[in-house]
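Sanity check. The docking grid for 6-O-phosphono-beta-D-fructofuranose depends on where the pocket ends up, so I'm generating a full predicted complex first rather than guessing from homology. Inputs follow.
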Amino acid sequence: MNWERFKSLYYTNPKLGLSLDISRMPFPDDFLTTMQPKLQQAFADMAALEGGAIANPDENRMVGHYWLRNADLAPTPELKQAITSTLDAIKDFTAKVHKGELTAPGGVKFKEVLVIGIGGSALGPQLVNHALGRLKGGRDKLRVSFFDNTDPDGMDYVLKELGSRLKQTLVIVISKSGGTVETRNGMLEAAAAFKAAGLDYPKHFVAVTGAGSKLEQVAISEGWLARFPMWDWVGGRTSELCAVGLLPAALQGIKIDQMLAGAAAMDEVTRKKSLRDNPAALLALMWYWATDGKGTKDMVVLPYKDRLLLFSRYLQQLVMESLGKELDLQGNVVNQGIAVYGNKGSTDQHAYVQQLREGVNNFFVTFIEVLKDRNDASLEVEPGITTGDYLQGFFLGTRDALSEKNRHSITITVNEVSPRSLGQLIGLYERAVGLYASLVGINAYHQPGVEAGKKAATGVIALRLKIADALKAAGGREFTAETLAALLNQPEKTELVFKLLEHLAANPAGHVKKTVQKPWHESTYAWQE
Ligand SMILES: O=P(O)(O)OC[C@H]1O[C@](O)(CO)[C@@H](O)[C@@H]1O
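Predicted complex below; grid placement will be based on this.
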């Protein structure tokens, strides 16, 4: 590649220990200049947001995740106090758990944490747990596992892993709204498991939720061990650096002050109004150029580091829930967004990189390079060559192989994976998403699209109950999906009735017996006790 272009476009910040290479994005010479007016407007929007403007107009909310790592920026003394006192409470709670001053009943020391949450209430904690656990090779103070779905078998798997250590388990139920059904279900399943083991579950349970939420009410009425706040001015997908992410991380033994310091340092840099000094602005402009400001190309995130495996999944929510919007701020239909996927290199080279090099050219890659290989000395797998040399070799080789075929890429280089550098990466992408949203004129801080699926699911559950009632009342009479839908007066929902019957028949709790017939849609279903 072109060294002169690289020299002129390479952003490097030794203080942060982070560099950004956009030289493999072949934008025209005048692109950065022509984007200046839009970019300056994005900076102005961002300054207003950080100053406490209602940056999420649809929900009439401020957007304050940047205050979490510099409480002095909070627009009122009350908000500043809320941030600092919560941080103190997290540290105090954690210290007591670590010292064994706060224990499970019977003085049993907590050794395990089970986090129950979904979306923004799980992805950040999962990323941090995976990236920063056992960082120095030792054991974590507490081991963290997750319920992040309403999949019964998934929960059984985690509970089996915990086994008899349930009595040493602290459960953190995280839900900003406090009404998310998957999380409620996880909480009920966990509580049932504790009860079945003869354990007094409220003495193990902690809530992280918004004031007045259903979850908070349950936690209060059942006398849970502790509660930590979640505020309406922090979005789920930007909540890693409030109690949502900090509490599990601190309990695990991760240095949360360093995560906060990393994010704060990145915030300072990404507030700079001069483009060449602002890696988030450079990133946002590259997304704009690569995708025509319309999401025409996908963002493939490829960290060459096992510890960063979950970063692409974390970014998937941050980017897609923020940018994937039907309407712009003026109410025009724009169907914006950028699709994000990826796992890690060089593993993915043996999976989908074939298509990246030779197939449809509908993506740009963001490589994440980590300079430090490991803590200890490395084995030579060939004379003078380590496994880490190979990891870098595959990264550089793949990058070149893609460039040769006009497949564009950005590279972010960090010195190491650490609480500080992860805080920086989170801060970098939060800012880039916010700036990009301004460039394309959308609200990055709401998620109206997820409601439709939730409402439809409620309808499905209601129909499931009606089906069970009707079959039971029919006392063993057999129905096809069609005849049952007709009986329920909902012939337009026959497909849904079929899907529900199939699930009921597959599970003992469904009390439905299926008799297979030919053709398949003449199969019958009847109630069975
Ligand atoms: O923290 P809560 O309120 O349970 O929400 C979990 C997730 O669900 C969503 O609202 C989407 O349904 C996300 O935005 C959020 O991170």
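Relevant for the grid: The CA atoms of residues 462 and 497 lie 11 Å apart.
Also worth noting: The first helix runs from residue 3 to 9.
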